[in-house]
Amino acid sequence: MLLLNPIRRILMIIIATFLAIFFTLAGSQKIFAWSAVVFKIQSEFLRRYGLGRGHMYGIGMIESTAAGLIIFAILTEHEIALQLGAALILTTSVGACYFHFKYDTFKDAIPAILTGSGSISLLVSGLL
User: Where do the TM regions start and end (predicted)?
Assistant: First the structure.
């Protein structure tokens, strides 16, 4: 992120911060089920896809790891951590899009499309 012009760098930090916050919440929810309402909704989605609690836990671990890598990257400007975190988010976003398009509506896929787009922007910014 150090080589980007100042405006682009700030935009990338904003995107990275948004993704880190979102996936810290989403990942921890899948692991710890701290909100019964959200957990019920997520469980219903995953059951419809033929996935169980173990899958939800695994997805939560991936999302939490991605968020941790991005937070570390923001604090230390560690480019590889940012790229790894963005790649993990892109992976979960692509998976979410696949299942939403197969079993649900386009509306349900919008958050995954947005997080996937954000992670692509972080990946591309690291390559320029």
Answer: 57-75, 82-103
What residue spans define the domains of the chain? 6-127
- Asked if residues 57 and 51 have their Cβ atoms less than 8 Å apart, the reply is no
Each of the 128 residues of the chain gets a pLDDT tens digit; together they read 555 688 888 999 999 999 999 999 999 999 999 999 999 999 999 999 999 999 999 999 999 999 999 999 999 999 999 999 999 999 999 999 999 999 999 999 999 999 999 999 999 987 65
In the numeric block, which tokens belong to residue 95?
A: 């998976």
- Of 102, 107, 115, nearest to 59 by C-alpha is 115
Amino acid 27 reads: G
Rounded distance, CA 66 to CA 111, Å?
A: 16
